[in-house]
Request: fold
Amino acid sequence: MPWRGVFQRYVLKCPVTEAGVSRRTYTHEASLYVHWPYCLKRCSYCNFNKYIPRSVDHVLMTQSLQRETQTLLHISQVSCITSVFFGGGTPSLAQPSTIAAVLETVSKHAQFSANAEVTLEVNPTPAGKARLRDFVAAGVNRFSIGMQSLNDSSLRVLGRDHSPQEALQTLSEARTLCPGRVSVDVMFGLPDQSEDSWQSELEEVLSVCDDHVSLYQLTLERGTHLFKQVQLGEVHVPGDDVTATMYKTARNILKKAGFLQYEVSNFARNNAVSTHNIGYWKAQQYIGVGPGAHGRFVPHSLQGVLREARTQTLEPDVWIREVQQHGHATRRQIQLSHLELLEEVLVMGLRMNEGISHQHWAEFSPEANLHQVFGVSEDFQQLQQRGHLILDDGGLRCSWEGLALLDSILPMLLLRLEMFFKKPAASAATAGRTHGQRKR
Ligand SMILES: C[S@@+](CC[C@H](N)C(=O)[O-])C[C@H]1O[C@@H](n2cnc3c(N)ncnc32)[C@H](O)[C@@H]1O
Ligand code: SF4
Reply:
């Protein structure tokens, strides 16, 4: 495979985690997210942190991304990077030398784990297309293509600057360069989309796609052009019952085509799962570099186990200035409490079909297991009886039906978690005894 040879120059295997070390105290590993904030054009539905500049100073951006990567690696206790994701914005508009420079910086100040996944989000615009080969030469070994739709009029109402043909061409090129490691983003619930048109569109996508599909239900974001158009009645979007059916249909079609739904919105065959995203869902540490990027890691200064949620400055020019002055542009830095960390473990973990194993939960909550925290609650037992949630030797997870209802299930679980960890010491001790009797 072409990507292996090129990437080999960065790969130095990270030290293996010592057996028995809890994930909470195991702070030398993380994934890296790098945000490229620029786009060619504003899509009508998008409220991501992106800017449409007249020109981009690629040299300055490269230097700033390198500097912030280096600083955050030093601030953290991270010596091993398990995956890198270049997202945006439109990172396929960055120069391949920028991608190479950031990877080079990582390899100077940390190690990569063996075969670390390096993903680049690609917009199928003519401007980004010609460079896919150069991105592979820079160290990218996985592409995530923002196809969104194969319907011309949907692409127009979404304000996309590419045609279905351009998306197909980019996909085919990416598949040639990174076979088995190309994902497509597809949206549903689009203006004027019917259940039938969605079904045939998805079937068309499946006839051309590689081994990974991410499905996104359109969210009407306040402040976007599309939101206004829908408010004014100029554009019509399908109702909730229709989008629920669309999601159900898509899951069945993807299943028939041999795709495993490994997360609420993500489907893979031939085990082509995204290890970077699995890191988020398993609440592993990640470092976020670039304007508006988010991170979750334990900094050196805390000399302990408390994780911080960090957000970098949003606006690129201000971000660059702050990186020049301080080496990084962390705008917000909040220490996560034990309860907040467990909330993340729960909310993210239940998005995966495999859910949260007992071992995974124990890494974050050695003091109380899943049975103690959730199993005794009546509401929880009702959800189990309805077949939406499963708690057994494999851990806690949603059933196939439950995964589609996760948003309505989570509030009860979060409440239960909060009640458990905020309860007075006396009742916690009682719960401990109940737990003891279970012999778990
Ligand atoms: C962060 S965006 C950036 C990707 C890339 N710039 C592009 O547009 O193809 C990643 C994905 O989020 C999804 N997305 C963005 N805004 C959305 C919205 N309002 N509703 C649903 N999905 C959205 C799109 O499918 C998109 O591919
Ligand atoms: S959807 Fe992607 S390309 Fe469009 S404005 Fe948002 S980040 Fe940029």
Q: What stands out?
A: Residues 39, 42-43, 46, 48, 50, 88-90, 123, 146 surround iron/sulfur cluster (ligand 2) (CB under 6 Å).
